[in-house]
Amino acid sequence: MQQPRFTLNSLVIVVSIFTAITFFITLTVVNLADWSAVNDYFPIEGTDLGILYSDEKPSGIYRGYANSGDLMLEGEFSHDWGIVRHDDRLFLNEYRATDLGFMTSRLVRVDLDTFEEEVMIEDATLRGACRSGELVCIRTAMPPSNFPGTNAFCQLYGMTSGMLPIEEATSVIFVDPESGEVVLTLAGDDAEAGDFEARYLDRTLEEML
What we know:
Radius of gyration: 25 Å
Order of helices and strands: HEEEEEEEEEEHEEHH
Largest sheet: 4 strands, antiparallel
Oligomer: single chain
Strand content: 25-35%
């Protein structure tokens, strides 16, 4: 009477183990099917540098080719909204994730000889340079990728940092690339307007004044 009971228990154990293995393999295959590697490389015009976004190796500024370049400075840097080279320095946006789960942008200056990074302005987004050479940045504006109109945490962050959602108000600031000082601040009613370049980038600082 004991032998059949042992055989049944063994069968239950074997079936349970087989089910667990099957579940694990199925789950792993599904996850592999959903996962896609990110390895995007964007050259910086006029240099032998590029910005790499990758989940296989550190993101940042690389020198050389996309797949064999040397990491010069690690970080999440922008490639699309504004990169300005002035003499031996590079000005660009660096993105960081907050504890509340959204991204902020700050203007940084990178020495192209030493690749030392200096934060110039927190909570600012570089859009380019105007015709007279000053850096043009959006200030007091939450990056649109955070969906500030519907993200309640943006309001909380704005109350503590002085930032305003991009839909409400923005200011456009002009920064001297040599001194890092803000030389002009203008109220900007829409930082996402299609004529931003014509209004701010295609004009000199004197024309703004």
